[in-house]
Amino acid sequence: MESKLGMGDECELPATASVWLTDDPQPGLVLVELSDANGRPHQLVDKSAIFGSDLLPTSTYPRPTAIRCTIEDINGEIATVSVHWVFSRVTDMPFTFDVRLDTLGPVAAD
Asked: Minimal CB count within 10 Å: which of 2, 11, 48, 73?
């Protein structure tokens, strides 16, 4: 099935919420992990609400979640996506990485 997502579209990238880290600051921090198109692992830490309303301190971990991102470029089957709430310490630009285009889905209705 061909993706209907294109450059500039917001989308969701499946990831794994690995562990609840702390209750402070509210609503709590979660460690989320994913692999990019080259198999390199990435870890993101942020408030649980960023990743989904089903992430609670009492939830069973690991559990599936999604990361909302924007498609910056598409090259064949590879999409460069950005996560605008995570900035590179080196460039002070949004964090970008490559993922397989077919792993991205439309943003779920809130």
From this structure: 2
